[in-house]
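R.M. (postdoc): so does anyone remember the format we settled on? I'll just put the structure tokens first.
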């Protein structure tokens, strides 16, 4: 794997370049406008547009490529220090007979910070570092409130007071929050949330940038087969929601 493959690709364009982009796009748009008097397109401007657009795209790519080199050099230097590798410039100046030993102090410090952050953010006993609690005044749909009132009235055989209704709503909200907490906990377990967060924190400590996007949910189709007495085996498609994440470093 090359360094370019490791770090991926991207662009960095400052605000001045954004203004240049807008100005150029406005110019191209003006060239492609239709002449309102004749109702015909400006063919001369249209013929010049493809070449101008290609030149602009190439120029914008070169500017972006050169603008990101400074950041990439910082990442490469951080990675070399972490792995204990001298940069090519340093190796060229070193005597061939000189020792190539590299004191990896960066690795020690990064690992130390990784461990401390993991201990602070993720309890060792497996407890969650997040939670769900209902608001002081939970809100339900009219249909849900009517269903709760109907069930309680049938059990007690009388109408309940507003104070009792408030308590019932609080209990129902806590029950719903508990169920939602179980769903989130299950999704995070499937995502391997703790392992991913440790990787993101390590990336932030090493390169200065660690980004986690998610959790996201995708819909996948699965087939299940079951037996029917008359027609034999049958299959059916089931759509399930599966969480996934997007990590960029």
């Amino acid at each position: 794997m090359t360094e370019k493959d490791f770090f991926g690709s991207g662009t960095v364009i400052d605000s001045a370049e954004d203004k240049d982009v807008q100005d150029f796009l406005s110019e191209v748009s003006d060239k492609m406008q239709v002449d309102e008097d004749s109702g015909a397109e400006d063919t001369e401007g249209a013929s010049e547009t493809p070449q101008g657009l290609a030149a602009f795209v190439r120029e914008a790519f070169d500017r972006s490529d050169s603008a990101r080199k400074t950041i990439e050099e910082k990442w490469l230097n951080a990675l070399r220090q972490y792995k204990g590798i001298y940069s090519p410039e340093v190796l060229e100046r070193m005597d061939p007979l000189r020792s190539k030993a590299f004191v990896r102090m960066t690795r020690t410090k990064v690992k130390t910070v990784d461990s401390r952050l993991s201990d602070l953010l993720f309890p060792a006993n497996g407890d969650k570092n997040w939670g769900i609690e209902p608001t002081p005044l939970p809100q339900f749909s009219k249909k849900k409130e009517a269903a709760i009132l109907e069930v309680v009235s049938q059990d007690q055989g009388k109408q309940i007071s507003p104070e009792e209704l408030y308590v019932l709503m609080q209990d129902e909200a806590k029950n719903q929050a508990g169920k939602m907490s179980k769903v989130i906990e299950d999704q995070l377990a499937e995502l391997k949330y703790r392992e991913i967060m440790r990787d993101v924190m390590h990336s932030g400590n090493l390169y200065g940038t660690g980004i986690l996007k998610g959790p996201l949910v995708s819909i996948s189709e699965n087939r299940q087969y079951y037996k029917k007495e008359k027609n034999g085996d049958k299959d059916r498609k089931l759509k399930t929601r599966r969480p996934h994440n997007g990590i960029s470093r």
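R.M.: ...and that's the designed sequence above, right after the tokens. Also worth knowing: The first strand starts at residue 211 and ends at 228. Residues 1-14, 34-42 have pLDDT under 50 and may be disordered.
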